[in-house]
Amino acid sequence: KALKPIPRVVLVGVLFGFLHLALPRLLPTSSIGIILGAAALASGSLIIPIIMHTLHNGLIMSVDVLGIPLTEETSPLVFVAMTVLCLSCLWAMTRISAVDEPGSSSPSPSS
User: Fold this and answer.
1) What is the spatial distance between Cα 10 and Cα 75, in angstroms, rounded to a whole number?
2) 22-72 pLDDT, tens per residue?
């Protein structure tokens, strides 16, 4: 029997964490996976979570390029920044999809 949407998102998020092959980072990676899964579920598309994942990886690369060491002190800060970034994208996506819904008060493009 198929899983309901919420357990499915959690399962896929945990699998996402395991597939990154870093057991010490399982919890934060799984959390990001759950957020990305929620974005896919909410949007009905993979575009938003792909953009979110790209931004996440860009932030990690920026931290590396800037020479900010990922220590026990800085890792939580970077994780919080990534989570805020991902949740902001999810919020923006819900706002955009609310405007695009039929019957919304947004002006339609003229031909």
Assistant:
1) 23
2) 777 788 889 889 988 988 888 888 888 888 888 888 887 887 788 877 777
Predicted structure pTM score: 0.63
In terms of phi and psi (left: phi > 0; alpha: psi -120 to 50; beta: otherwise), the region of 67 is left
Contact assessment for residue 49 and residue 39, using Cβ atoms and an 8 Å cutoff: yes
Tokens of 69: 């060491």
Residue in 53, 50, 47, 46 with CA at minimum distance from that of residue 32: 53
Tokens of 2: 């198929």
**Residues 26, 17: contact at Cβ < 8 Å?**
yes
In sequence order, the 6+-apart residues with CB closer than 8 A to the CB of 79 are 28
